[in-house]
What does this fold into?
Amino acid sequence: METKPQRLLSLDFFRGLTVAAMILVNNPGSWAHIYAPLEHAAWNGCTPTDLVFPFFLFIVGVSIAYAMGSKREDQSTHGKTILKALKRAFTLFLLGFILAFFPRNFSDFNFVESLKTVRIPGVLQRIAVVFFISAVLFLKLNNKRLFQAIVIFLFGYWALMTFVPVPGVGFANLEKETNLGAWLDRTILTEAHLWKAAKTWDPEGILSTIPAIGTCLFGVLVGVYLKNKTIDAATKISWLFCVGTLTIIGGLVWDLSFPINKSLWTSSFVLYTGGWATLILSLSYWLIDVNQYNRFTKPFVVYGVNAITVFFLSGLMPRLLNMIKIDFEGEKIGALNYVNKAWFASSFANPLNASLAYAIAFVLFWYVILWVMYKRNIIIKV
It folds into this structure.
């Protein structure tokens, strides 16, 4: 008889906190008016917003360790488990593709032409690929080999990006349009299928998926350690705080020669963000699972149990609502834009506060929906 996977309330809390933060930073009232911590770093460096996506991949890794741990030792189940992981990855990739393909205006939508220019990489697409590869590696490799895989991915990526000459450029570099990853994306995907804001490179590109897998495997190893019943909670927390602190320091040291950069997902970025994720999860584990201080967790758990669902729908809904046009000061604007301008922009003297208030209201709006789903035990597993 298959036992139900052990569950961490702190992991659900951390997942919900991360997804709520994702929605907050992805939906400002105005992209022209955003407080600095809620923006991505222009290139090198790391803002609080830059932590959000790697945190989610780290959480995916921890979840793999908990959900698939019982199947790891039984090789007879590997085929079935890998097939299930492949189906989930395909679903995630498809949802990301739908978000990229979904038109903002049906009146001038052309299906064939849109296929020619749809962005292929993306957040959900990266989660899909990283999840599947990490799940297979978790099933097929022991913990020592997983650690070695992380080392190989991070140092291999560093070597590729800093030593391999870029065709057409002639030298290795870490600039936006001329680095090896950007060249590979343009060569394989062509500029038509890359991030529309840049067109010549993509922050979720092909080559940077390698260190992103390292982020997920970092989470896998943390999950394996947390799940170990032979180690007491105090020892787990102590060691995880040490690991988190040391990897943050390691990332900062590596930053001196291989800059912390989310768009390139540099190896120093993996260490730095993985360290912070480890510290936050271990602190949450100590507070919530060990000391049972869990009254404050419910709003975030509500987000956490339907994380992918709310991420997808919160990306789709604005496009649907903005197809409804409303008169505002002599022009036709989308319904959601109308809400922002009529309710928020006109109510705050400071446009930064208006933009932030709209983003917070958007997060609370989805919280109400998710709360109803949670109360009715509606959990959509993707």
Remarks:
- The chain has 14 helices and two strands.
- Confidence is low (pLDDT under 50) at residues 1-5.
